[in-house]
Design goal:
Layout lengths: L5 H9 L4 H10 L5 H11 L23 H15 L16 H26 L10 H10 L14 H15 L8 H18 L8 E3 L3 H8 L4 H8 L1 E4 L2 E4 L4 H17 L1
Protein name: UBA domain-containing protein
InterPro entries: PUB-like_dom_sf, PUB_domain, UBA, UBA-like_sf
Pfam family, one: PUB
Length: 266
C-alpha cells in the first residue's frame, strides 16, 4: 500500500498496535518517521473510527496513473477529511524577537518546566528528603554516568525512585529547544509499552520487546535514561529481548502516572 513503509509497519506491530491503527498512522504521516507515526496515534487514539480498516478509493486500471506529486496531494486531501476537529493550538503566531531575548526566554521556560516536573514527580513518589539538597543532583550524575568498578556498594533504590531518576535524566538532558521532540517521543514510547501491558496483562507479546526493533533502538537505546526506566519497571535482558517476567501492577500504574505528568508540561 502506497506511503506505508513495511519496516515501520513491522515495528509498530511489534509494539502492540493493531494493523489497522499502524497502517493508518503510517499512511496519514506518509511514513515520514516512526516518531511521527507514534505521535499521530497518540493524537487520534480517542477517535471513534481509529480501529476501522483504512479505506482508500481504488483506481480503475484503465485510468491514467497518478504522478508522485498527485499521490501526495491525494493523501493530504484524505488526511484533511479525516481530521474533523482541528486543535486550537495547532497554529500559534509568535512575534520575532532578538536572539538574545529569545534565548533568555527559552532558558527561563526550560527551568520552569524542570521545576514543575520535579515537583509533580516528587508528589507521585511520595516526596524526596530535603535534608540534603545536593544529594539528589549528585545521585543523578552517578546514575547517568558509568560507575567505576572499585566504587563502594550503593544502597539499592526502590523502583519508584529509579523511575523518578530515569525520567528526570530524560527531561534534563533533552530539553525541547535543544533536542526537538526527543523527550516527548521517548516518553510516549515508554507510555505505550506500559499501557499495553496494563491493558493486556495476560498477553505475553506485550511483555517482550525485541532489542533490534527500530523504535526501541531510536527511542530507548539512544536516549539516556529511557532504558533505566524500563529496568526500574522490571524489564530484564534475555537473549534478543527485554522481558518483563513479573508484572507489578502498582509499579506500572505509578510509571504511567509519572509519564503522563511529564507529557503535560513538555
Amino acid at each position: 500500500m502506497e506511503f506505508i513503509n513495511q519496516d515501520y509497519l513491522q515495528s509498530l506491530l511489534e509494539m502492540g498496535f493493531s494493523r489497522a491503527i499502524a497502517e493508518k498512522s503510517l499512511y496519514f504521516t506518509q511514513s515520514s518517521s516512526l516518531e511521527n507515526s507514534i505521535d499521530w496515534i497518540h493524537e487520534h487514539q480517542n477517535d471513534q473510527d481509529i480501529e476501522e480498516e483504512l479505506q482508500i478509493p481504488s483506481i480503475n486500471d484503465n485510468s491514467p496513473k497518478m504522478t508522485k506529486q498527485e499521490a501526495i496531494m491525494k493523501a493530504r486531501e484524505i488526511k484533511s477529511k479525516f481530521i474533523s476537529q482541528p486543535k486550537s493550538t495547532q497554529f500559534i503566531q509568535v512575534k520575532r524577537e532578538p536572539n538574545s531575548q529569545r534565548a533568555q526566554k527559552l532558558n527561563a521556560t526550560e527551568q520552569e518546566q524542570k521545576r514543575v516536573l520535579e515537583e509533580r514527580i516528587k508528589k507521585l513518589k511520595g516526596g524526596q528528603s530535603q535534608a540534603n539538597p545536593t544529594a539528589e543532583s549528585t545521585t543523578l550524575i552517578i546514575d547517568a554516568q558509568t560507575i567505576p568498578s572499585d566504587s563502594p556498594p550503593m544502597i539499592e533504590k526502590s523502583p519508584k525512585d529509579r523511575m523518578y531518576l530515569a525520567l528526570k535524566t530524560i527531561v534534563t538532558l533533552y530539553p525541547s529547544h535543544r533536542h526537538t521532540g526527543i523527550a516527548i517521543s521517548t516518553i510516549n514510547t515508554l507510555k505505550t509499552y506500559l499501557s499495553n501491558i496494563m491493558s493486556n496483562p495476560l498477553d505475553n507479546k506485550f511483555h517482550r520487546i525485541r532489542i533490534q526493533n527500530k523504535s526501541f533502538q531510536e527511542k530507548i537505546i539512544k536516549v539516556q535514561g529511557a532504558l533505566n526506566f524500563l529496568k526500574a519497571v522490571g524489564f530484564v535482558e534475555e537473549d534478543d529481548y527485554y522481558v518483563l517476567k513479573n508484572i507489578g501492577v502498582y509499579i506500572l500504574a505509578e510509571g504511567i502516572k509519572m509519564l503522563n505528568e511529564a507529557t503535560e508540561i513538555l
